[in-house]
Design brief:
61 residues; two-stranded parallel ribbon; 1 helix
C-alpha cells in the first residue's frame, strides 16, 4: 500500500453495511477502501442466518 495514496472514500467496518456501501461506491467509480478491525464479515460471520441480504429473498447461511 502506498502511504501517500488518497482514497475517495474510506469505509470503517467490514460488516454487511460496510460491504454494501463499498459495493455502491465502487460501482459509482470511487476509489474505496474498507477498514475492519477483526475478520471480514463483521457480526455477519458469527451468525447462522442472514436476513435481508441483498439479492437473497429467503436469507442465506
Amino acid at each position: 500500500m502506498n502511504e501517500n495514496h488518497v482514497y475517495d472514500m474510506i469505509i470503517v467496518g467490514g460488516g454487511p453495511g460496510g460491504y454494501t456501501s463499498a459495493l455502491y461506491a465502487a460501482r459509482a467509480g470511487f476509489d474505496t477502501i474498507v477498514l475492519e478491525k477483526l475478520s471480514a464479515g463483521g457480526q455477519m460471520s458469527l451468525t447462522w442466518q442472514i436476513d435481508n441480504y441483498p439479492g437473497f429473498e429467503n436469507g442465506i447461511d
